[in-house]
Amino acid sequence: MTLTRIERILSAEVRLAEDNLALLQAMGIVAVHLQSSPGAGKTYLILRTVESLGRRLRLGIVQASLSLPSPPSPLDHLDLPYVQVYTGGRPGLDAGMFRDALEQLPLADIDLLLVEDIGTLTPSPEHSPGIPLRAVVTSLPEGEECASRYPEPFAHASAIVLNKLDLLPALDFDRARFRQAVRRLNPTAPLFEVSCRTGEGLEKWGDWLLGEVEKCRQAGRGPDR
């Protein structure tokens, strides 16, 4: 493949990502791109978010999958708009995949769209699918230097979630060191320390999501509903 062709493909991808952003804004939808290493607990975080916010907001979910057919997911039985997207072996959702998912969703019936990417922190922020908010999820077993190992996702995150706080008594995890590593990369993104198992810290995470939806409404985005 020539350099010119690669540049054309990347340019088209950027335009499609911009179109996705514009569509979400036009529909008044707050979308959050959840990224993590495998096993950090993105799916469980989504389930707990649905439990806490499902009666206050109209939720939708997009979940990326590495395999086809997609394996069973705990999200399969939720009574809300839900689409699985096959990534074709790529290291994360791209703008085209996300657009395909958007076209399968009842966008007029969604306030908050949670987008679970595959389990990796390697995709470059430059290759955005066109999702306005990015939440990086990590967990105690990954160690307090996780942010230092994957600086780009943490530096570009809109929010950071440290999950599995219930394991703290069993692990040698220095929370202060973790916070310092995060703040060196991203001084402003809210940091939520949670346990999806016990529910600790999840209220603040939910409040942040509610706040983002409220900001969208106050900005007058989306059609009259």
Walkthrough of the structure:
The longest helix is centred in the first third of the chain and has 25 residues, at 3-27. This protein is globular. 37% of the residues lie in helices and 19% in strands. The protein is built from 7 helices and 7 strands. Helix 6 links the parallel strand 6 and strand 7 (191-193). It has helices at 3-27, 42-53, 95-103, 146-149, 151-155, 175-185, 202-218; strands spanning 30-36, 59-65, 82-86, 112-119, 133-139, 159-163, 191-193. The chain has a 7-stranded parallel beta sheet with strand order 3-2-4-1-5-6-7, with helices on both faces. The chain has a single domain (3-218), classed as P-loop containing nucleotide triphosphate hydrolases (Rossmann fold, 3-Layer(aba) Sandwich). The mean pLDDT is 91. The termini are far apart. By secondary structure, it is α/β, with parallel strands linked by helices. Helix 1 (3-27) runs parallel beside helix 3 (95-103) and helix 2 (42-53) crosses helix 7 (202-218).
> Radius of gyration in whole Å, from Cα?
17 Å
Distance linking N and C termini: 47 Å
Mean pLDDT: 91
Q: Uncertain segments of ≥5 residues (pLDDT<50)?
A: none
Q: How many domains make up the 3D coordinates?
A: 1
Question: What portion of the residues fall into strands of 2 or more residues?
Answer: 15-25%
Helix content: 25-40%
CATH topology: Rossmann fold
| CATH architecture designation | 3-Layer(aba) Sandwich
Strand line-up of the largest beta sheet? 3-2-4-1-5-6-7
